[in-house]
Specification:
Layout (H helix, E strand, L loop, with lengths): L1 H26 L3 E11 L3 H7 L9 H4 L3 H6 L2 E6 L18 H10 L3 E3 L9 H14 L3 E3 L1 E2 L2 H7 L2 E5 L2 E9 L12 E2 L4 H13 L4 E7 L10 H13 L3 E5 L7 E4 L10 E2 L5 E2 L6 E4 L4 E3 L9 E11 L29 E3 L6 E3 L5 E13 L1 H4 L5 E4 L9 H21 L4 E2 L9
Parallel strand pairs: 1-2, 1-15, 2-3, 3-4, 7-9, 9-10, 10-14, 19-21
Antiparallel strand pairs: 1-16, 5-8, 6-7, 11-14, 12-13, 16-19, 17-18, 19-20
């Protein structure tokens, strides 16, 4: 009888310990936020012609239908809107202007934040810039990079986005505006270190979990970043920026995952001269160029782009140990020691932990390639964004060949120059 009672007590204590451990694990489950970035959202004349309906309206829904589930599943999807929404008449290169239907299709596809600081934001001058911003505001779309006035910039910039308990600050700058100047009161964020330094200081004062700088920079059609891009990326990280995402070259450039802000990778990779350099793994992403997401470009490397996936992780705050967490079979006076979160630091004269900023760390990071099928090669009425793998929803040997050339070229580039960022193959059944 005594042994039976003792065994039942032991079983009950063990059960309580297991329940307490499960509850503690659930309480300390890390919070996660998924981000998706794409490159240039272009709108050439041929795209306008393909999307135009007989009644004069425009239909872009089919362009994004295969990737809509992928874009929509991200907690926050970001794209570079490299075309003003300046109203009719619409036009392609060199002075872009897209119909409002284009924006509606982007939003329906799942985009949450659009970047507007790029070299084409003044293609319809101040009127086009202003109309673009007012349309975005009317639809309650988050945006940053251009502003209606200095007061508008002071109120809205840096852009703070709060999502699922995360506080993210977005910065956006361009190298130039094709020789055009924003007439007062309109403003365009240009790459200017003193101004950016002040903006970053203001961003840090917001106490965000991460600061993400989206840069319109580099040399068009160059598959490797130039010295200015590398130096500026290093400088941004040294100032407190967490991740750097680039656009403009219209081709994909490498993605680096870095462990610190020293600017010098510490893991092996090949340099532009063919000599191996060092590389490291860690917590900062520098994506030099995501290429074109959708366009009418057809030269090598320009007929597709890169979708970048970032996962931000915020460890749950330490929880007190639940009752009966210690094993009933533990030795007398056994003690446990709390392990501080990696996002905390200690003072020499105190055992209290002081949170650091940014609070979140970088979890998984991956990319996938996307190719644009133009009507001239697909036989379809409109443009269609296609994943790198899987059957195409139309029959065209030429399209298959062109997609394979693009995918192979970009994989070779990224496999050689990427640092700790691997490809995530999209399911073969991507689609609505």
């Amino acid at each position: 009888m005594y042994h039976t009672t003792e065994m039942m007590v032991r079983l009950l204590l063990t059960l309580c310990m297991l329940i307490g451990s499960v509850n503690l694990l659930a309480q300390q489950q890390a919070e996660r936020l998924t981000l998706l970035f794409v490159g240039d959202l272009m709108q050439h004349r041929a795209q306008l012609d393909a999307a135009r309906r007989p009644d004069g309206s425009y239909d872009y829904a089919s362009c994004f239908e295969l990737l809509k589930p992928l874009i929509s599943e991200a907690d926050l999807a970001v794209g570079n809107l490299e075309v003003p929404l300046g109203g009719a008449p619409y036009g392609g290169y060199p002075a872009f202007c897209a119909p409002d239907d284009y924006l509606h299709a982007l939003l329906d596809s799942g985009f949450d934040l659009l970047l507007t600081a790029n070299n084409h934001c003044l293609d319809r001058q101040g009127r086009g810039l202003a109309r673009t911003l007012r349309l975005l505001d009317s639809l309650q779309v988050a945006h940053t990079g251009t502003f209606l006035s200095p007061a508008d910039r002071r109120e809205r910039y840096p852009l703070l986005v709060e999502k699922k308990g995360f506080r993210l600050v977005f910065l956006n700058y361009t190298y130039g505006t094709n020789g055009l100047t924003a007439t007062p009161p309109y403003m365009v964020n240009l790459i200017d270190k003193p101004q950016m330094q002040a903006d970053i200081a203001r961003a840090r004062a917001m106490r965000p979990d991460a600061i993400i700088a989206c840069m319109h920079w580099g040399e068009e059609y160059h598959s490797l970043p130039n010295r200015q891009q590398r130096e500026l990326a290093d400088w941004l990280l040294s100032q407190g920026v967490t991740h750097v995402i680039g656009s403009h070259p219209h081709v994909i450039q490498p993605v680096e995952r870095r462990a610190s802000t020293s600017g010098q990778p510490t893991e092996r990779r090949a340099s532009t001269s063919g000599q191996p350099l060092e590389r490291r793994s860690g917590g900062h992403i520098v994506a030099y160029s995501l290429g074109n997401f959708i366009s009418n470009m057809s030269a090598p490397h320009t007929d597709g782009g890169l979708i970048l996936h970032l996962e931000l992780v915020k460890p749950a705050p330490p929880q007190p140990a639940p009752p009966f967490a210690a094993s009933p079979f533990a030795a007398p006076n056994a003690s446990t020691h709390a392990i501080p979160s990696p996002q905390c630091s200690t003072r020499a004269d105190s055992t209290r932990f002081t949170p650091l900023h940014p609070y979140c760390t970088l979890g998984r990071c991956s990319y996938e390639l996307v190719w644009t099928a133009r009507p001239t090669v697909s036989g379809l009425r409109n443009y269609l964004l296609c994943p790198a793998e899987g059957p195409l929803p139309f029959r065209s040997a030429r399209a298959e060949a062109l997609r394979r050339i693009f995918v192979n070229n970009e994989r070779n580039l990224l496999n050689q120059y990427n640092i700790d960022v691997k490809e995530r193959l999209a399911p073969a059944t991507v689609g609505p």
